Each structure stands twice: as structure tokens, then as C-alpha cells.
Amino acid sequence: MKRFWVNLIGWTLGLIWLVPFMGIFMTAIRPMDELLNGWWNFDEFHPTLKNFYQAWNHPTAPLSQGIPNSLIVAIFATAFPILFATMAGYYLARYTFPLKKSFMTTIIITLALPSQMVAIPIYEMLLKMNLLDSYIGLILLHTAWGIPWITFFMRNFFTTLPIEVEEAARIDGAGDIKIFFKIAFPLSLPAIGSAAALQFTWVWSSFFFELITIYSPDKFLATQRIPLMRGVYHVDWGILSAAAIMVMMVPIGVYLILQKYYVKGMIGWSMK
After folding, report:
1. Structural domain boundaries of the chain?
2. Which of 90, 125, 180, 239 could serve as a FRET partner for 14 with CA atoms 20 to 30 Å apart?
3. What's the pTM?
4. Which long-range contacts (CB under 8 A, 24 or more apart) does 91-94 make?
């Protein structure tokens, strides 16, 4: 009975979450005149991909340019923090050094820091470095923002791995770098996959940092282009819904690819 109720509650919550998505999906694939009485009314049903085509080739903010721009930023802003934070997390899990607890406390504090609080310092810093309106500046910004939580995540995961294998390799003469890349790094692939899925999703869905750093219309990312699809006197909700679905499908695809690693890696949050 316990399993039954748990499954029932889970499926109910899932269906509730799907209700607004179905509204967006129906708005994207149906003409607007069929939605005047509600998207759940199927007296007339003529699905079309016209809205997706118009969103992809929009005259003002085409997603055909925005999605590749977002991929450039999201891929590099995921790979860099994963590499650096994995090494930092391993060091925190395996070694001791002065003020280690204070360092960990600082990392945890940064996790609760709202991005809006540091917007002005970030803007001034990038301006002095001539990195405004540049993908390099945006990638560095997302990398710096992702390293603390990924470090904390990976440190928790490494504490769950047995240290005996590393000690045996050390006895055989392996150094710290070789132990990390030959033993610890391969064993941490589930956690890396989990962290990569989360970091990619957050970078891909980000809007605030892009808003204050990217200004050139041809450099706009996908999330910046969707608001520009609104007309001055008329809002075409079909095009907006189609654009939102296309942008949303990329992180969903990444999650499906990394799903098995994501589930295994989440153990890192629940351990010391």
C-alpha cells in the first residue's frame, strides 16, 4: 500500500506539471482561432508546424542563430567548471590544509549568493577587462559561478569512494596527478555526468547574466531572442510557445543522454 500511494502521488504531481506544458504545446501546434475556447477544446483540430518554422526563421530574432550561440556558451561554460571543480573537489576530499573548514564555509556561502547582488561589480570587472559583449566574458562568468557548487558536489561524491584503491596505487609508485586521472576521475564519471547535466541546464536557461553582458543582436543567445519575438501591437503566442519548446528541448535531450549518470551522481548530495 505504501508503494501504491507513493506512485499515485508521484504520477499525480507529474500530470499536474504536464498541464501547463500541454497548454504551451497546443498553442504552438494549433492556429490561434482554434484556441479561443481553450486549448482543451478539440472540436476543430488542425495541427501545423508553421509556428516552429516562423520562430526558427524569425525576421527580428531567429532561433537559427540563437541556439548555436547558446550551444557555444553552454558547452564551454560546462566543460571548464567541471574540470576545475572536479580537481578541487578531489583535493578537498582527500587532503587537509590550514583553514580548510573556513574555505568550505566560504564555498557554501557563495552558493546562497543571488546573482543580482553582484551584477554591478561583474559589469565593471568585465568592462575593465574588455570582455563585455563577448562570449569569452560570459563563459568565464558562468565558469566562476559554477565552480563553487560543483566543487561542493564533487567533494561530497569523492568522500563516498573507497580510498584503498588510491593507496594501493600510491604504494606502486603512482603520483597524485596519475592517481587522479587514472583512478579517481574515471570512478567519478557518474557524478560528473550529473553535475554536467545540471550546469548545462542552468547555463542554457540563464537570462540575467546574458542581459548584462551581451548587447550585439547577432550575438544574442536563445533566451534573449524569445522576448524579442513579441510584436509591438500584437503578441503571437503561437510563435512564442514554439520558440519556448525548441529552446527547452535541448536541455531535456542532454538530461536524457546523461540520465543514468545523473541518477547515480545524485548520491553526492546526500553524503557527508
Report:
1. 1-48, 61-270
2. 239
3. 0.84
4. 92/151, 92/155, 92/158, 93/154, 93/155, 93/158, 93/159, 94/158, 94/163, 94/166
Helix (H, G, I), strand (E, B), or coil: what is residue 96? coil
HSE, side-chain direction, 13 A CA sphere, residue 162: 4
Nearest of 93, 249, 256, 236 to residue 176 by alpha carbon? 93
Q: How far is 188 from 85, CA to CA, in rounded Å?
A: 12
Contact 194, 262 (CB under 8 A): yes
- Give buried/exposed letters for 125-141 (b at 16+ CB in 10 A, else e): ebeeeebbebbebbbbb
In this structure, the number of other CB atoms found within 10 A of the CB of residue 88 comes to 20
Q: pLDDT of 103-132, one tens digit each?
A: 888 888 887 888 888 889 999 999 999 999
- What CATH code would you report for 61-270? 1.10.3720.10
Q: Roughly what angle, to the nearest 10 degrees, separates helices 119-128 and 135-158?
A: 120
